[in-house]
């Protein structure tokens, strides 16, 4: 353990090893004797096992927590930009505080402010989930604090599922209003059900013309997914392949063969919607349109689940009401069973009658 000062700095810093890692902490003073006294107290705290309780929570800042969370956790996810968006909102409110100052009461206040700003329950829950994960890491792996204040705050009940899909007439109008590059993207989304990020990150390495499939190497749930494509999608891919550049392996790119930014895609899509006066519709609703049309055409929910890449069938159940006829077999069987019971009663329970009815 020792003291040091940064170049051209006046404040003394403590420098020591704790649980196998290097720790640097400011003493907050330029007085050498006072700094030595603070260092001595820290040495005693470490020996007595109290350093963890008094130093980490009271000196680690919320900004430090978020930056390490983004670097070590969010960066490994399929869409790290979403996590950065969540943490930016969190830092705006909690920034400038130490971890010890982040209390359940303060988190509830944050929730109320986000509600007042017009956010939906699902959006608030995504932000709280990121905050909870960051504190879990701080408690279990980094040993920055004792407990997780988010664990004592309830999540919001989500009831904001959208049930909006594109009609055939709206699709025709929309595609006519799209520039060629946007026309390809919208068509691709309507016929594959892929998420925006999955489409923009699609590479030629993942396109197999002979098998008529495309590969999503990293989906939202972190798993690979192989998607069979129809002739419409195959035609789009073949046309894109004619002008493929060696500069990039990305399928959907700009005229100068640079990746298309999601923000640019959203703005262009909104402009096309305004031109056609199509309201209450987002790019992600193209995915809902894909699933809705499949279910309406009688495709079973298990196949739809696999095509969408849903880990749980619960996610896909939202589309079940689009095809109530798929449930008819389940109730029609009762008519057949009732007929069997009646004939058995009339025949005195003869197995021959049962065999005849079953056959």
Overall description:
The protein is mostly helical. It has 16 helices and 6 strands. It has helices at 32-48, 51-59, 62-72, 80-94, 104-116, 121-140, 168-177, 180-192, 196-200, 231-242, 262-276, 285-296, 301-308, 313-316, 328-347, 351-358, and strands at residues 2-5, 12-18, 21-26, 207-208, 213-216, 225-228. A 3-stranded antiparallel beta sheet has the order 1-2-3, with helices on one face. A 3-stranded antiparallel beta sheet has the order 4-5-6, with no helix packed on it. Strand 2 (12-18) and strand 3 (21-26) form a beta hairpin. Helix 3 packs antiparallel against helix 4 (80-94). The longest helix has 20 residues, at 121-140. It is elongated. The model has no long low-confidence stretch (mean pLDDT 84).
CATH topology name of the largest domain: hpI Integrase, Chain A
Shape: elongated
CATH superfamily of the largest domain, called what?
A: Intergrase catalytic core
pLDDT < 50 stretches: none
Summed over residues and divided by their number, the pLDDT gives a mean of 84
Helical proportion, percent range: 40-55%
- Count helical runs: 16
Order of helices and strands: EEEHHHHHHHHHEEEHHHHHHH
Query: What would CATH call the architecture of the largest domain?
Result: Orthogonal Bundle
Look at the helices and sheets and give the structural class: mainly alpha
Order of strands, widest sheet: 1-2-3
Main β-sheet description: 3 strands, antiparallel
| Beta-strand fraction estimate | 5-15%
Assigned CATH class of the largest domain: Mainly Alpha
- Rg over alpha carbons: 29 Å
- Give the tally of structural domains: 4
Number of strands: 6
Separation of termini?
87 Å
